[in-house]
Each structure stands twice: as C-alpha cells, then as structure tokens.
Amino acid sequence: MGRRYRRGSAASSIVSDTVYMSSRLPWWGALIFGLAGFILFYFIVPAWLESKLIAQEPSSFYPMLEAIFGRRIHWFEWLGTACGLVGLFFGVRNYFWSKEAGYKERGAVALLSKIFGRDLS
After folding, report:
1. Residues 76 and 9 sit within 8 Å (Cβ to Cβ)
2. How deeply is 38 buried, as exposed, middle or buried, from its count of CB atoms within 10 A (0-12, 13-18, 19+)?
3. In 11-25, which positions are buried (b, 16+ CB within 10 angstroms) versus exposed (e)?
4. 101: which DSSP letter?
C-alpha cells in the first residue's frame, strides 16, 4: 500500500517553506528573508492585483472581479504577515541559539505564524 500525502493549501506550503529556509539561515539572513517576504506579499502583490482590477473597471464583470481580487488581496496580506513573523522569530532565535531548529519546532512556528498572521492582518 502506497503512502498517502495530504495536500495543503498554497499559502500553507509557502509558510512551511519559509520556516524551513529561515531556520537554516543565520540571524541576519532570516531577518532579511522575512522582511523580503513581508514586503513582497503584503505590499507588492496586492498593489499589482489592484492595478489589474482597476484596468478591468469598465468591464461588466467588475463587481465579480472585485470580490475575487479582494479575497486574494487579503490572502496575500495574511501570507506576508505570516512570512514576516517567521523571519522575525528565526532572526531572534538564531541570534541567541546557533543550533538548527528541529522538525517539531519548525512545525510549531509554522502553526503559530499562521494563527497570529490571521489576527494581525
């Protein structure tokens, strides 16, 4: 019998990958990586989506697109907040402890960043 793999959402995968990469970087690398993820997902991608939405304003499908893009913009802002929290945590953690984070610690950080990211965005 083969293994069963659970497919998570794309956002969950991005946060998990950010946790994995940040846990292996030095403290300054984790801070820069978290800041870059925050800026990309919180500011740049939503601004790009807004520009695409504004371009479709004369269309009769504009109300539907506005609802869809609004959800996506909120989703990207949440993702940026979660990536920023991960970078901040591992920046501080890797500054004080040079030992690599274990599997359970990375899982806990991913879960907490997803929860706190929802509250903060």
Report:
1. no
2. buried
3. beebbbebbebbbeb
4. P
Q: How far apart are CA 42 and CA 4, in angstroms?
A: 34
Element at 33 (helix H, strand E): helix 27-39
Residue 3: the pLDDT is 59
In this predicted model, what pLDDT tens digit does every residue of 9-57 receive, in sequence order?
777 788 888 989 998 899 999 999 999 999 999 999 999 999 998 988 8
| Distance separating alpha carbons of residues 34 and 22, to the nearest angstrom | 8
Q: Which two tokens stand for residue 100?
A: 């690599």
Reported pTM: 0.82
Residue type, 110: A
Average the pLDDT over each of 9-13, 57-61, 110-114 and give the range with the smallest value: 9-13
